[in-house]
Amino acid sequence: MKPLLAGSLVLFVVAVAPAANPLPRSAPESQGVSSAAVLAFVEAADQKVDVMNSFMLVRHGHVVAEGWWTPYDAKSRHELYSLSKSFTSTAVGMAVADGKLSINDPVLKFFPDDIPKQPTSNLTNMRVRDLLCMSTGHQTEPALQASKDPWTKAFLAHPVPFKPGTHFLYNTPATYMQSAIVQKVTGQTVLDYLKPRLFDPLGIDDPTWGTSPQGVSLGGYGLNVRTEDIAKFGQLYLQKGKWGDKQLVPAEWVAMATAKQTSNGSNPKSDWDQGYGFQFWRSRNGAYRGDGAFGQYCIVLPEKDAVIAITSGTKDMQNVLNLVWDVLLPGLKNERMMINPEGVKKLQTKLAGLSVPVVKGNAKSGVLKDVSGKVYPFAANDQKVESLGLIHDEASSGMMIVGKVNGVERKLTCGEGKWKKGAWAFGSGPEQPVAASGAWTADDTYTAKIVLYETPFIATLTFKFADGKLEYEAKRNVGFGPTTSPKLVGEKK
Length: 493
Hints:
With 493 residues, the protein is of the alpha+beta class.
């Protein structure tokens, strides 16, 4: 794994939607959806989910409610993480339909130069179908990123102790292999292969997808699209692969991909124990979904003719689904309802005011005059932070973070009681678009919250000044490892 704007609302006005070929908009009740139920869901999610990023509900092919938590917005792409897997399996299905491969083909067929000298029978018997179903026979995931060999070779060198098809293991490298196979048989990356076949027809503009060192789309993660793009993808599957008058994905493939192909548990209360298809999870309530780390969801409810797209940054992904089932689902009726003007207005007001909470505190402090404009150097550290300081930005009435990170001079202004967009880099990572808010949370401590709004990540930075020193600490809301970085101490020269 690798590793500002007011909240937006569009219920009825298509012109505001930035997506190409936007889905039609409708009042909730016109599509048999209770405005009060949607409001209750949004309020519950706002209070009970760590950080919601966006939400869109599609019923009978119409968007009936949508909202973004500022600084997240409708026009920005979002990192999907493992929700990317469902797009990769779609590419496999299209390549099968094009006659390029069969799901019963052995995996070794596609990589003759990467086969181990003495392949085991289990490896020899591994099929494309096993990649799709997360039943490759592995006991642990191959560590592709740590390998100096091509990733396909590293995958095939990994032990396969179980007979393929008999043991479920969630296996992101298996999805990478699907991407590599599509590239082998089509001569195109999955991103390029899907562009004229899926992305363009759906009006998904400028999707991006990371690649391996060998130039293969990552497959299991790395796809970035917008919230409405997620909803369109779900709607395509709800319509059994048909979009307008064109069958983009074979209906037979949709049926297989979203059916239970592998058993993965027996807990009736867990949405991760309902079975697994071809890179889709089966869910409770007759639903299926693609999902990604920290709460990226494309939920399809065939029995309700509905699609729900959600992006978030949460440690408790089951909590999000529980709210969908317990609060939102009862509001999806089988018949049209009387328009509820008051209910619609309340929902509009709530969605229009959604925001990630800003930092609360004071605009100035007693130490400001002594520390503003001073830069504090740090000893060499794994965070690549060489120096940091604060400057009071009179023009914006906020504070500007200045310093050097990984050899590059950086500056970022934090909004006071609001989000202000800019760019920042963490460690040796690339500069990314961010939005920042900050305040003095104690007389000697400035706290900044930085939202990487094309991802689920939010960093909270604390700057504590005392005795001519700066104590700096960074925390993230979610992560694939530790979310708190070691405290750094710099001394003013």
